[in-house]
Specification:
- By secondary structure, the chain is of the alpha/beta class.
- The chain is 26% helix and 27% strand.
- The protein contains 7 helices and 12 strands.
- Strands 8-7-9-10-11-12 form a 6-stranded mixed beta sheet, with helices on both faces. It has a 4-stranded mixed beta sheet with strand order 4-3-6-5, with helices on one face. Strands 1-2 form a two-stranded antiparallel sheet.
- Helix 1 crosses helix 5 and helix 6 runs parallel beside helix 7.
- It is globular, with a radius of gyration of 19 Å.
Length: 267
């Protein structure tokens, strides 16, 4: 299995007024590199929180368009040595050689950025079909989604330093929550799980993301076929343009009892 997800360290807590309550243990999230390989070829390395690594690797390959429609036959640790030798930080995705050979990323993807800027909107539109027409969503149900995801964020409750992504249904029911120090990793873990379960495209589902709605969050949601993306914070302008091209509903800037709908309000 993958390594630890948290580590306890001592910290000195400072308080207003000059008080010094002394040192105390603080639980911190682990951040380690994960090297992803596809049919023996290097895809790249991303900084992630250990856990659900197979989902992350599969989701990354899928949302980046690297599978080329090929089914995933297996997923395993190692590829450059034994799992123990690589400290469970290398995952190999195997399609039996059916996927196109990937072009490796030139640098390690940080926990905050992923592949920002490396894929252009026109290229996405050439690769991905618009989201199919569907019945409108009941937007009032989305407030319940936020509460349900928050209640399931175990790592955030313990550390306060991870993002969450979740898949939810039209009735507001949350079916899958994943956490990671990287926002893009959390989404890839959700998408990877759905792919491995044979549940893509994500018709009739919405994608929740903590934090802002960047271009990459919308791109990954589009690749997976989500009808709606709900973000706690505001989107970028490029994220809105991407959602428009995808004909996907994009909601964000959730505050108390209100949020903004940026695209396809008729859906």
């Amino acid at each position: 299995m993958a390594g630890r997800r948290t580590e306890t360290m001592l910290a000195r807590r400072m308080v207003a007024g000059g008080g010094d309550p002394g040192r105390r243990p603080d639980e911190l999230i682990i951040e380690e590199p994960l090297e992803v390989r596809l049919d023996g070829h290097l895809v790249g390395t991303t900084m992630r929180t250990p856990g659900h690594d197979f989902e992350l690797a599969v989701g990354l390959c899928f949302t980046d368009g690297l599978l080329g429609g090929a089914p995933v036959e297996s997923c395993r640790y190692c590829g450059t040595g034994t799992a123990v030798e690589t400290e469970f930080n290398v995952v190999s995705v195997d399609t039996g050689g059916r996927a196109p050979q990937p072009t490796p990323r030139l640098s390690t993807a940080s926990s905050s950025c992923g592949i920002c800027g490396s894929v252009q909107l026109d290229e996405l539109a050439d690769r991905l079909a618009p989201i199919a027409a569907h019945d409108p969503w009941d937007l009032d149900l989305l407030f319940g989604v936020v509460d349900a995801v928050g209640a399931a964020q175990e790592l955030f409750t313990r550390t306060g330093s991870v993002h969450a992504a979740a898949s939810f249904r039209r009735d507001g029911g949350v079916e899958l929550v994943r956490e990671d120090i990287g926002r893009h990793n959390a989404v890839d873990k959700v998408v990877g799980r759905l792919l491995l379960d044979g549940s893509l495209p994500a018709t009739g589902r919405g994608l929740f993301v903590s934090g802002r709605a960047s271009f990459e969050m919308v791109q990954k949601g589009w690749a997976a076929g989500f009808e709606l993306v709900l973000a706690i914070s505001a989107p970028s302008a490029l994220a809105v343009h991407t959602a428009q091209r995808a004909q996907m509903t994009l909601c964000g800037f959730l505050r108390d009892d209100a949020f903004n709908v940026y695209t396809t309000p008729d859906r």
